[in-house]
Write a structure and sequence with these properties.
mainly alpha, Rna Polymerase Sigma Factor, Chain: A, 171 residues
Length: 171
């Protein structure tokens, strides 16, 4: 990329950050539950935009891709954090769950995390988008680059499994 194109791309990413940064930050806070981690994640998402300009797209396609990158990045951070803690021997899985209970003021949050943890990142993103963020299924489909039918199917499977878990059944 020549200097002119590189400068134009950086300026575009800066403009996107100003326009969509707060939306990405709120998404990261919801998924990570930590404002400092969300600030870092937001910056990392926009750094990815600097590195991967070919996937950025134009106009209305930019926000769905940014949202998708932010969702997957945060879900990966959550998964990697749990895995890293186990590898380092900082705590056994049971100790991690006890610590999570103590740090979580709402037992429902832990239940939701346990249910979400049983699914792939895309299904997690669909469930969080619809059930937590209050997005319409069409919005989630656009943000994640999925068909509406796929969003419906993943959400239906998620809800069925969650209901089974709540009844004490193994989904």
């Amino acid at each position: 990329m020549d200097d002119r194109n590189g400068r134009e791309h950086r300026e575009r990413v800066i403009a996107l950050y100003r326009q969509h940064g707060p939306v990405v930050y709120r998404r990261c806070v919801r998924l990570l539950g930590d404002r400092e981690a969300a600030r870092d994640a937001t910056q990392e998402v926009f750094l990815k935009l600097l590195r991967d300009q070919a996937r950025l797209g134009d106009g209305e396609r930019a926000l769905p891709w940014i949202y998708k990158v932010a969702t997957h990045h945060c879900l990966n951070l959550r998964r990697d954090g749990r895995h890293r803690a186990r590898l380092l021997g900082a705590a056994s899985p049971d100790e991690l769950e006890i610590a999570a209970d103590a740090a979580t003021p709402f037992p429902e949050r832990r239940l939701a995390q346990q249910v979400l943890g049983r699914f792939d990142p895309t299904t997690q993103a669909v469930a969080v988008g619809v059930l937590v963020d209050g997005m319409e299924r069409e919005e989630v489909a656009g943000a994640l680059g999925l068909s509406r039918r796929t969003v419906h199917r993943k959400l239906s499977r998620f809800l069925a499994a969650a209901r089974s878990l709540l009844r004490g059944e193994d989904p």
